[in-house]
Amino acid sequence: MKKIINKSSLFVVIILFILLIKPLNTNNASQQPSYNNIEANTISTSSSEDNKYETSKLEINIADYFIFIIPIIFLIISILLWFIYGRDKQIIETTVEFYPPNDLNSLDAAFIYKGKAESKDVTSLLIFLANKGYLEICNGNIDLNAKKVNLNKESKINTEKKIIELQEKIKTEKSINPSSKKIKYYENMLNVYKDIDTSNDYDQSCPSSSINGSNFIIKKLKDYDGTDINEKLFMDGLFESDKTEVTDKMLYNKFYTTTNKILHNTNSRKNKNKIFEKSSSNKKILIIIMLIIAYFLITIPPILNYGQANLLFFALSFPVIGFSVLFNMLLEKKTSIKKILGIEWGIMFGGGPWLIIVLPSLLQNIMYLKGYFIGIICIVGMALCLMHLSKRTKYGNEMLGKLKGFKNFLETAEKEKLESMVMENPNYFYNILPFTYVLGVSDKWIKKIECISIKSPSWYQGPNSFNVSHFGAFMDSIMIRAHELMISDPTITVGRDSSIDFS
Known about the structure:
With 503 residues, this protein is mainly α. The protein has a domain at 151-195. 65% of the residues lie in helices and 3% in strands. It is built from 22 helices and four strands. Strands 3-2-1-4 form a four-stranded mixed sheet, with helices on one face. Helix 14 packs across helix 16 (337-362) and helix 20 (428-439) packs antiparallel against helix 21. The chain starts with a helix and ends in a 17-residue tail after the last helix.
């Protein structure tokens, strides 16, 4: 079977070579130039020449069907590639998993479960590390104006240097461009470094949350002494310059660099090769090549024969970019401003050039029109094969089964079983909490625990008497607020989606 796949790769290369050296001429006989009509009248005087003309006409008809045949062949090859290299073995879902797999933090669990880690999964480390005793989270209802950030002598010197540096940047920027947006940003950061209690300017630049009580303080309880590189990066990013406390304000437009580093480490090729087979990943290149050939095949001939050749670049690139953005936005579950704007942009950027350049050319020849839409169907099929081509390794399949079994328990556990788990381990609810956020079942999990008597976690400090329901609402707001701040990037002013659903 592998030999068949290798031959198919050679076939794709041959087809590409044919298309490059012999462009398709799919005009019908009635649409040939007058020269062909003259030639037809001339050669009709002899039977041998007439046969020659009929043979030429037959060749043109066969070329017409290339638009139909090649994308269909490519689709069949893509399905075969998926069937051989991408089809996962049946996932064995363990019936009962009371805990996540050993040695996994919430970020690792998210990566294995979804096949990639996202920024909100990085945020879950906040609760995971709190459970490990490294930090403490204080409710924002505490009077923040009564506290200052505790800095040691060296940190105070560094802070003073930062203040001088920011003052110089403001002065320089004003001399270059008095209306620069950087000035406001530098001024806001200067106020934060001068006095963390001064929040007026900060509140004008940092997006405030609409959720009450979402402000928070994170206190460092001890240095990180573990071996996980991403957990260490997270702690170092929170408490840089030997800080022992940080507020939500201090994460704004700063922590995003740490988030990006952690995501880069987690989604590395080395890690993906642990849960996905290399052979399936390598076959993606072949499907991508077939996608490109099929798209060129159904788009280039109509434009060259009936459209404007000088607009070929726009006819090829704009629809691909626009419709890719459009479909990505449509696939997003949560409605947001980013999604709405993305859909509108995709329609205008992709649909406009397609209606103006591509469609009129297709309407000139029914063969091109039929071939185009058959080709689009094949391209969608190839894209689906490409998306599902990653086949899990034995380890990846086993761990996914355990995580699914664990998620199933979180969703279906009965009160009696939860009570026995809490009695066995009073911190059971809190140890599981970060995993419920990355698995998308935090709301269900908190509601199940509301009717069970549990004590407040040692890492949580709030002004009111402890209540599971209030604690759950506070943690939801913290996770959303922390995620907003941990991905805030001063170089990105538009398109940032902060409406993340952790439940």
